[in-house]
Amino acid sequence: MQSITSLSRFVARSTRAVTALALSAGLALGTMGTAHAQGVPIVRDAEIEALVRDYARPILKAAGLANSNINIVLVNDPAFNAFVAGRRMFINTGALMTAETPNEIIGVIAHEAGHIAGGHQERLRDQLARAQTMAIVAALLGAGAMVAGAASDAKGLGAAGAGVVAGGSEMARRSLLGYQRTEEVTADRSAITYLNATGQSAQGMLKTFQRFQNALSLSGARVDPYQVSHPMPRERIANLETLARESPYFDKKDSEALQQRHDMMRVKIAAYTQGQAATSRLLRGTDGLASRYGDAQSTYLFGDLRSALSKTDALIKSQPKNAYFHELRGDILMKSNKPAAAAEAYTNAVRLDTAKSGILPIQLGQTYLAMGTPDALKKAVVEIRKGLDRDRENASGYRYLAQAYGMLGDVADADLATADGHYYSGAYQDAKIFAMRAQQKLKPGSPGWVRAQDIINYKAPSKKKK
Question: Which phi and psi (to 5°) does residue 69 adopt?
Answer without folding.
Answer: 55, 45
